[in-house]
Each structure stands twice: as structure tokens, then as C-alpha cells.
């Protein structure tokens, strides 16, 4: 995500490295490269020009203090301007009404149905009781897809497969939700391959009939500037309340994410990556600006971790580490929690400085499979007491996992090094301080 843009911006900032002060000449050359980088990322030239003009004005109006170099100052100015361009602050869903009605709109193939499932899962985790409504009466698999998604997250799906009146379906769903005390209704509407009058009229009629509190326009970020133009067409007709960017993990240049807020004057509320139903993030403009500039996103990383690791688990783990009893069962449990947090390369990219280092490395989500296979080949006794695993046991584990003995030896060595580090942190703890530092 944004790899090409990040590289180009980094190259632009390097033009200021070694400079002792900000001047019109060195700022002009840097700003020119920034503008080129934005245009190459599919940002409209007019928007890119306005953006870089603001950056230039701010840079020339700043005095560089001794502790900050001109390049560092330019990075900060660009980060602030990028965040403002994308909305400045996060925009929350309006959920005060009971039931809250959320209408999902967008073109076919943008990921509306998958997003509807993700949103239901997200709101369920926040204590809401959602109902999914299958109002796409044209795409044959749409109803079945929504039912599968609903089944995976244990959220009910309202559908009328024989009814070809989408407005009537949504009105009936509203009555159903009130009877079953569902306090959020998520309506998955039909899309087309391109904007057409029939689609617009139908979704406008649904909006008029049910009066939703939120209308979210789902857009495939991989379509670049076309996504911005489509958003404008939808907004002119629907006056939606927010945008959802999907497929941000794809080969996208980022133009839609950067300029859609500027163009339609509606906030980006969510970003979605992948097919897994827990890969939905609230959109924070400043965090996204930091990631584009290679600064990482520790806050989102911590939030994802907190969503997977509960306090009771953390206390049990801390107790085992204190008693030097961390074993392979604990290790496997931690791997499972990390996998639930999302794409591994994306997670590592949230750590400041790591994104650039791994940009050319292919990190598969199956990276843990070999380790899990080795742990799975151990007996319960071996998993609970790693010290008993001798040479003959290692041979058996290697054979059972389909690995070489060297792989098992290396894994055992790494695991022991990790245990030694934990033991050292425990000794340094002084009332648990060391363990808390390790946890961080």
C-alpha cells in the first residue's frame, strides 16, 4: 500500500539532506518532486498543485531550529498537509438512533457485500446487535454470499429471494429488526458495472423509504481517480455520509485515498483490506499520513493487539513468564493471536522504520505454518516441558512435521533464546517493571 508514493516522497526529502537552511531554491526543487510523486500516484494535478503550494508557503514561512534539519521540517509539513487533505480527524458512525439504519452503496465489484459483513462484525464487537439485509436482487450470488458471511460471525441475515422489490424488502426488514430488537440494520444494496439511472433510482428510493442515519459509499481504491469520479456521481444523487475504501492491500497508487475527501467533502470512515472479516479499520488521516511517509503506525498496531489479547490471558502469561514456565503451548497461542491481527507484512509495516526495510521482501501469511507443524508434532508432555526434547525426540518431531532435523534444531535454539530473554527480563523486573517493558 502506497509503496511507490512513499519511495518517491522519500527521494524528494533527500534533496534537502545536507542543507543547512530552507531557501526558495532548495524548497522549489523538493516541492516539484513531491508534486510529481502525487500525480504519479493518480492524484488530480490541480489538487497536487494546490497541495504543494501550501507545503511551499509553510516551508518558506518556517525558521529551522538547530535541532531540526530542513528535510525533517519538510517531512513534518508534508505529514500535516496529507492528514488535512484526507480529512484531518477520524469521523465516527452516527449510532444514536434505535435502530440505526446504515445503507451501503457502490458499484458492483467494489466489495460492498464483504464490507457489510465486516461492518456487522465490527459493530457486534462493540456490543451492538446488527441485522444484515440482502437488498441486492440482481446479482445471483449476493444473497448467498451475505448469508455465508452472516453465518461466520453469527449475525442474522434478512432476505426475500423471490421478492424483486428492493424497497419492499428493506421496509419488511425494518419491521423484522424491531421485532427482534436489532439495534443496527445494515442494508447491502445492488451495484452495477457503471453508474446508471436504474441503480441510482433504486438506491435513492430505498433511502427515501427507510431514512438511514448513515449512507456509506464503498469504493475500490485500486480504480484510482475513476473511484473519485464515481464517488462524486453517487454523492450528487445520494448525499452520502461517508466513504469506505476497500482493497487497500492491493497494488494501488493511493490517489483515491488521498483526494476523495477533498473532492466530495465527505469523510473516509473505514478502510478495508483482504477478505477476512476482522480486517476493517477506522480511518485515521494522521495515522495514514504517517504510514505513507514511512513513520509506521504504532497506535493502530497496539489497538489490533488489544482487540486480540484480553487482560486475563495477559495475566496468565505474565505469571508463567515470572515462574520461567513459558512453553510451546503458550508460544502457539501467541502465534494464533498474532495471525488474527491481520496481514503479517502490513503489521510489520506499522513499526517505524521497518516498512522500508521489508518493502522488497515477500512475507507470506503462511510464514508460521512450519513452526505450527513442528509444535503440532510434539506430544502434550513435550509442549508443556520443552527441556525434555532430546535428539531422538527432535528426529521424530521433524519427521512428523515434514521438516529437516536442522529446521527443528534452529527452532529449538530460537525458542530457548527467547526464554532466556524472558528470564533475564524477569530478573531485571524489580516489581514487574521488566515484564511490563517486555510486554510493550
TrEMBL record:
One of its GO terms (molecular function) is GTP binding. Its EC number is 3.6.5.4. It is an enzyme of class 3 (hydrolase). One of its GO terms (cellular component) is signal recognition particle. SMART domains: AAA, SRP54, SRP54_N. It catalyses: GTP + H2O = GDP + phosphate + H(+). This is Signal recognition particle protein. GO terms for biological process: SRP-dependent cotranslational protein targeting to membrane.
Amino acid at each position: 500500500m502506497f509503496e511507490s508514493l512513499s519511495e518517491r516522497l522519500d527521494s524528494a526529502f533527500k534533496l534537502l539532506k545536507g542543507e543547512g537552511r530552507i531557501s526558495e531554491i532548495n524548497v522549489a526543487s523538493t516541492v516539484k518532486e513531491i508534486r510529481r510523486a502525487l500525480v504519479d500516484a493518480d492524484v488530480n494535478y490541480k489538487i497536487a498543485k494546490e497541495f504543494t503550494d501550501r507545503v511551499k508557503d509553510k516551508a518558506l514561512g518556517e525558521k529551522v531550529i538547530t535541532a531540526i534539519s530542513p528535510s525533517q521540517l519538510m517531512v513534518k509539513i508534508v505529514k500535516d498537509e496529507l492528514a488535512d487533505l484526507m480529512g484531518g480527524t477520524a469521523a465516527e458512525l452516527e449510532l444514536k438512533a434505535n435502530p440505526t439504519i446504515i445503507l451501503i452503496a457502490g458499484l458492483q465489484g467494489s466489495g460492498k457485500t464483504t464490507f457489510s459483513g465486516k461492518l456487522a462484525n465490527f459493530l457486534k464487537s462493540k456490543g451492538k446487535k446488527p441485522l444484515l439485509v440482502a437488498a441486492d436482487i440482481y446479482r445471483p450470488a449476493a444473497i448467498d454470499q451475505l448469508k455465508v458471511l452472516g453465518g461466520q460471525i453469527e449475525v442474522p441475515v434478512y432476505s426475500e429471494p423471490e421478492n424483486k422489490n428492493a424497497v419492499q424488502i428493506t421496509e419488511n426488514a425494518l419491521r423484522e429488526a424491531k421485532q427482534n430488537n436489532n439495534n443496527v440494520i445494515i442494508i447491502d444494496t445492488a451495484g452495477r458495472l457503471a453508474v446508471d439511472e436504474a441503480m441510482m433510482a433504486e438506491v435513492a428510493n430505498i433511502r427515501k423509504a427507510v431514512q438511514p442515519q448513515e449512507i456509506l459509499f464503498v469504493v475500490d481504491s485500486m480504480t484510482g481517480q475513476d473511484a473519485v469520479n464515481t464517488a462524486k456521481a453517487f454523492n450528487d444523487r445520494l448525499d452520502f455520509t461517508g466513504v469506505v475504501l476497500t482493497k487497500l492491500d492491493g497494488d494501488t497508487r493511493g490517489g483515491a485515498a488521498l483526494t476523495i475527501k477533498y473532492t466530495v467533502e465527505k469523510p473516509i470512515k473505514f478502510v478495508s483490506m483482504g477478505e477476512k472479516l476482522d480486517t476493517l479499520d477506522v480511518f485515521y488521516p494522521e495515522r495514514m499520513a504517517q504510514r505513507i511517509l514511512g513513520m509506521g503506525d504504532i497506535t493502530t498496531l497496539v489497538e489490533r493487539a488489544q482487540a486480540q489479547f484480553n487482560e486475563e490471558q495477559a495475566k496468565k502469561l505474565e505469571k508463567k513468564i515470572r515462574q520461567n514456565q513459558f512453553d510451546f503451548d503458550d508460544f502457539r497461542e501467541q502465534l494464533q493471536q498474532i495471525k488474527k491481527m491481520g496481514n503479517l507484512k502490513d503489521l510489520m509495516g506499522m513499526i517505524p522504520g521497518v516498512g522500508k526495510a521489508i518493502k522488497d521482501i515477500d512475507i507470506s501469511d503462511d510464514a508460521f505454518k512450519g513452526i505450527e507443524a513442528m509444535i503440532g508434532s510434539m506430544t502434550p508432555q513435550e509442549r508443556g516441558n520443552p527441556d525434555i526434547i532430546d535428539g531422538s525426540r527432535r528426529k521424530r518431531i521433524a519427521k512428523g512435521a515434514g521438516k529437516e532435523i536442522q529446521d527443528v534444531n534452529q527452532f529449538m535454539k530460537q525458542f530457548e533464546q527467547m526464554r532466556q530473554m524472558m528470564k533475564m527480563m524477569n530478573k531485571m523486573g524489580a516489581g514487574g517493571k521488566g515484564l511490563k517493558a517486555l510486554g510493550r
